[in-house]
Write a structure and sequence with these properties.
Elements: E1 2-5, E2 13-16, E3 23-26, H1 33-42, E4 46-49, E5 55-58, H2 60-66
Antiparallel strand pairs: 1-2, 2-3, 4-5
């Protein structure tokens, strides 16, 4: 699971796919975490808890590949 605050003078979040490790930057203030997650979902990202209770994230492309929709 990786959703991190972007540091170094920038605001926002990076969401990283747990399959291919592609990263998407979400341009939201740190206080707007829920809005950032909503934006990620609206652009096709999937977030869920695995059987160990860890958050997992899948980009739209990896979801298509898993479903056989190359």
């Amino acid at each position: 699971m990786t959703i991190e605050r972007v540091l170094g003078g920038f605001t926002g979040f990076d969401i990283e796919c747990d399959i291919c490790e592609i990263t998407q930057y979400l341009d939201f203030d740190w206080e707007e975490f829920n809005a950032a997650i909503a934006e990620a979902k609206a652009s096709g990202w999937r977030s869920y808890k695995d059987e160990d209770g860890e958050w997992r994230h899948e980009c739209p492309e990896c979801q298509r590949k898993k479903e056989g929709k190359n």
